[in-house]
UniProtKB/TrEMBL annotation:
Subcellular location field: Cellular thylakoid membrane
UniProt xrefs under PANTHER family: C-PHYCOCYANIN BETA SUBUNIT, PHYCOBILISOME 32.1 KDA LINKER POLYPEPTIDE, PHYCOCYANIN-ASSOCIATED, ROD 2-RELATED
InterPro entries: Globin-like_sf (IPR009050), Phycobilisome_asu/bsu (IPR012128), Phycobilisome_asu/bsu_sf (IPR038719)
Protein name: Phycobilisome protein CpeB
Family assignment from sequence similarity: Belongs to the phycobiliprotein family.
Residue positions, PTM N4-methylasparagine: 73
Membrane-topology descriptor: Peripheral membrane protein
GO cellular component, one term: phycobilisome
Higher taxonomy: Bacteria, Bacillati, Cyanobacteriota, Cyanophyceae, Nostocales
Binding site for (2R,3E)-phycocyanobilin: 36, 40, 73, 78, 83-89
An example Gene Ontology biological process: photosynthesis
Keywords: Antenna complex, Bile pigment, Chromophore, Electron transport, Membrane, Photosynthesis, Phycobilisome, Thylakoid, Transport
Coarse class of the protein's main subcellular location: membrane
Record Pfam families: Phycobilisome
Organism this protein belongs to: Nostoc punctiforme (strain ATCC 29133 / PCC 73102)
Amino acid sequence: MVLDAFSRAVIAADAKTAPIGGADLAALKSFIAEGNKRLDAVNAIASNASCAVSDAIAGIACENTGLLQAGGNLYPTRRMAACLRDAEIVLRYVTYALLAGDSSVLDDRALNGLKETYTALGVPTGSSVRAFQILKAISVAHITNTNTEANAGKKFRKIDTPQGDCSALAAEAASYFDRVISALS
């Protein structure tokens, strides 16, 4: 079942046979108050998804050049394309989870059986884990607005983020990447 912060609060209140109130209500108010930051964080990740995925896959290829050689898991180009596609799909589900404030969509639609599928297909999970670690770093940098022209070079694209502290959203996004990494480990 895919949940968002509101559905989760209703289910918890139903389980207690009590109305939503107290800490649950305060958490929902905070979720609403931080809504623009959440939307901007999702937009920062989604707007840079293709470059972030390309950089992550290029990163694992640079760290392990054997992946690009004949017999490597990024050779031939169809395998590289599949890797790029899969990483972008999982990244999309991370953004859905961040938007909803709940990981159930990520768990149900992307992570359920992912390791078993990769193992059956011969996809090296170690390289996949490293790619998602790189994606996590890139996404957190975009959310916290710490991406710099020095790090990105010609590809640098500045995205306005809301004023204020986005560390909680960055930590939330990082936790979703940690779920992906854990599912593959």
